[in-house]
């Protein structure tokens, strides 16, 4: 009898291996529940990143003047930032890590910790958007949700 089965999707095949080292490829029935679960694991970080991007852009565009933002993000006009829509996650980080800009928010939060979380989000965003083949850590969606919760609480 096979004990300690571990399973993971490989395309539409299911690789089954046992603790004794024997393994085989099976073609089980893939249910809609399986597809919805797999979709949720893949799509949730993508959707949360999009919402985080919109929240940060809204915060920055409604708090700071565009010329101040450009002076921090593209002072040499290399990228040609012309609107808040041209900003990236790294730009949001540059704006919010600036002590004067941060002070404008009057948030009762530690700037360093917030920027660290924002940097983690930027790295997650890059992994997701550039299709990094390594799976995201299980706590990724929770980290993104927590940042969004904070942005909703203080940013609106």
Low-confidence stretches: 1-14
Oligomer: single chain
> What portion of the residues fall into strands of 2 or more residues?
5-15%
> Which sequence of strands runs across the widest sheet?
1-2-3
Helix content: 55-70%
Q: How many separate structural domains?
A: 2
Structural class computed from helices and strand pairing: mainly alpha
Q: Give the N-terminus to C-terminus distance in angstroms.
A: 58 Å
User: What would you report as the Rg, rounded to the nearest angstrom?
Assistant: 21 Å
Shape: elongated
Would you summarize the structure shown here?
The protein has 156 residues and is mainly α.
Task: Describe the model.
This protein has helices at residues 32-63, 66-73, 89-97, 99-105, 111-129, 140-155, and strands at 6-10, 13-17, 23-26. The protein contains 6 helices and 3 strands; from the N terminus they run βββαααααα. Strand 2 and strand 3 form a beta hairpin. Helix 1 (32-63) packs parallel to helix 6 (140-155) and helix 3 (89-97) runs antiparallel to helix 5 (111-129). The chain has 2 domains: 1-30, no CATH class; 32-155, no CATH class. By secondary structure, the protein is mainly alpha-helical.
């Amino acid at each position: 009898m096979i004990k300690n089965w571990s399973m993971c999707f490989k395309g539409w095949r299911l690789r089954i291996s046992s603790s004794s080292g024997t393994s085989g490829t099976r073609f089980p029935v893939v249910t809609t529940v399986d597809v919805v679960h797999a979709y949720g694991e893949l799509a949730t970080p993508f959707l949360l990143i999009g919402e985080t991007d919109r929240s940060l852009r809204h915060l920055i565009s409604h708090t700071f003047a565009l010329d101040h933002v450009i002076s921090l993000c593209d002072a040499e006009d290399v990228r040609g930032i012309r609107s808040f829509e041209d900003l990236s996650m790294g730009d949001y980080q540059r704006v919010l890590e600036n002590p004067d800009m941060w002070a404008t928010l009057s948030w009762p939060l530690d700037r360093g910790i917030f920027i660290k979380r924002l940097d983690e989000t930027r790295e997650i965003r890059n992994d997701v958007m550039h299709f990094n083949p390594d799976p995201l850590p299980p706590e990724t969606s929770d980290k993104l949700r927590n940042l969004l919760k904070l942005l909703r609480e203080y940013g609106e």
